[in-house]
Amino acid sequence: MSVEIICVGTELLLGDILNSNAQFLAGELAQLGIPHYYQSVVGDNIQRLKQVIQIAISRASILIFTGGLGPTPDDLTTEAIADFFETPLEEKPELIQEIADKFAQIGRVMTDNNRKQALVPKGAEILPNPSGTAPGMIWQPREGITLLTFPGVPSEMKLMWQQTAIPFLKSQGWGKEIIYSRMMRFRGIGESALAEKVAHLFEGTNPTVAPYAGLGEVRLRVSAKASSSQEAIALIEPISQQIQAIAGDDYYGADEDTLALVVGQQLRTAKQTLSVAESCTGGGLGAMLTEVPGSSDYFLGGIIAYDNRVKMALLGVSEQDLNQFGAVSEPVAKQMAHGVKEKLGTDWGIGITGIAGPGGATETKPLGLVYIGLAAPSGEIHCFEYHLGARRDRAAIRYISACNALDQLRRQLLRKI
After folding, report:
1. Environment class of residue 290 by beta-carbon count within 10 Å: exposed (0-12), middle (13-18) or buried (19+)?
2. Which SUPFAM superfamilies does this entry report, sorted A to Z (predicted)?
3. pTM value?
4. Is 55 in contact with 40 (CB distance < 8 Å)?
């Protein structure tokens, strides 16, 4: 027995909105321990909807629909389901009254097209919608097939899922086991290199280990199936410890951890402060740091030194070095880091300068060349050179550069704390 999620809406196919409903439902199914192997997205077309249903019932016993339950002509989910299973629709007077009452509560009158939302296949149970006008349904049209429908509005769907769908699925025997996952995060190592180091762990069945590549980072998902989250964590923990030992300093955190969060915790533990001087990242590093609540404890501020005059006037960068080596160079990155550290009176200073493109590259200084200066409390100043490549766009180069700066500080703090 497994589930297929079917998301209905031409706007999803066109990319007008992000399909967050599928992501939410996938996580919820894992929590209930329900196998989930397929997701489908289909536009607002009754024939294609029926084709998707035909495929889905051949490989899943529970079909979960989101979208297509509204009052407009392109809302076709309920009609397509009833037509596919050759079952007439029937109007529920209690639903009409409920919809009318909801309109009255906001000072509006229900229009005739909303009566469409009170139609359900004969024999289906209503899945109440406490916050909207589009109810869903729970229906078993055939032996071994269960359908659940939800509106496409995420807030409505989530509330209906929590209040009605979960109790129903648990009553069917689901939820006795859960699938719990930990997402381990790494930086400074490629996906293939990390996969080779932990290849022997990919053969496990409970827990399982699977690699994922992200922008400038690698992740390993460790998942276990057990009767409770505590039991699952107990299964995951030894594998997680093995991976951390293998990865060393390349491992930086898990699940919702960000580099900015981890670095902030390190600075707070060390009772040290940080300031940043940014050129090519244009304030992106400062934005990452201030995303963390309470970051004012350790992050004092930054200077966006985009023009060379600002580099000289506020950060004390040498005009001679700018002329001799250029703004994108090791000496300038170091002086930016030192300058902001001295100017703002912090323990650590970071300076970033680079060529994010699309223009500005030369033969000797290609697109994606970035220098990161790191001024330490001891007075020592480090510099790191990166070649991020011409295949990355401006936004990616800026983002990865800010992350690389945080990662280098993280590694230094690991050795100091």
Report:
1. middle
2. CinA-like, Molybdenum cofactor biosynthesis proteins
3. 0.78
4. yes
